[in-house]
Amino acid sequence: MSEPFFFEPATTLTVAEIARLTGAEPGPGAPLDRVIRDVATLDQAGPSDLAFLENPRYADALPRSRAGACLIAPRFAASAPAGLPVLTVRDPHRAFVAVARALYPSALRPVSLFGSQGVSPGASVHPAARLESGVVVDPGAVVGPGAEIGTGTVIGPTAVVGPGVRIGRDCAIGAGCTLTHALVGDRVIIHPGCRIGQDGFGYVMGAGGHQKVPQLRRVIIQNDVEIGAGTTIDRGGTRDTVIGEGTKIDNLVQIGHNVLIGRHCVIVAQTGISGSAVLEDYVVLGARAGVNNHVVIGEGAQVAAVSGVNSDIPRGERWGGVPAKPARAWMRELRAINRLAQSRGGGDKTDPSDDDRH
Predict the structure, then answer these.
(1) What fold does the segment set 13-108 form as a domain?
(2) How many helices (H) and strands (E) does the chain have?
(3) What is the CA angle 32-37-42, rounded to 5?
(4) CA atoms in the 13 A half-sphere facing the CB of 73
(5) 0.90 exceeded by the pTM?
(6) How many CA atoms lie within 13 A of 136 on its CB side?
(7) Annotated domain spans of the chain
(8) Which of 106, 115, 134, 320 is deepest in the core (most CB within 10 A)?
């Protein structure tokens, strides 16, 4: 059985072209006409590959690297072995990503999994739906009445686009997604298995049973948002749930009803955001963070992984812990706990009479 490689480069770049693209400074004697066909890690790169080095953790691989060229931070440039063409640049990783994007533009956005053009014979598109020319609908997908989908958008297999949903241009809706009660902008990527626009979790609880609260509003996803696989975003109850432009959401994130997320936020995997919380622009939430309902996290604030946010966070601050608090206070607490644990552990003597039998 063959071993396929799922992405093929769309072009090649010379070392000189990479230098121009990234603003890097070629080292003395660098072969500017050398052709670079691929990108690779420093230890695995071959003569036609581009590698990079910015983290000292990987500096040991530099003397043995066979890369055709290496983007390198200034502090490592003098350590490069003779014969390794170096391109010195302030931010090697960012430069490396720019080259990878140029070589592999097809990896930036999912395409039809069935190789479809237009609406596949196995898809179900309601006669009252409106699809612009250039829309691709894979087998098993369902597009409901009144839905509108813009040109260049791909609807993956078994995805469901509900009645009246609007999806903009050049979007990708992954396999098995469901979208209801939603308005989606342009260039949005929704990875497989997402659930967008389902009921928010709202009940009036009582001794005689729990009364469901009608969820009457929408999910609005602005331009250039990317949503990871398995993420769920509830529609609003009394106001729209909004995901601001350019925001990036990882896999397996839960976003509750009425949540407002600003522009260019980053929300990492397994985070949960409770109803009516507000994230202003450029907020970062680490993996498995939890945000309580009605909390406001200010612009540019950052929350550490596995933190529990129960109160508002001022703009620009870094918080962490359970419950979350300013990072300095959190670190002081951790150090104090560690000192206490060490002092008690060093002085304790085990008493054989002190066991569960007494």
Answers:
(1) 3.40.1390
(2) 3, 39
(3) 85
(4) 11
(5) yes
(6) 20
(7) 13-108
(8) 320
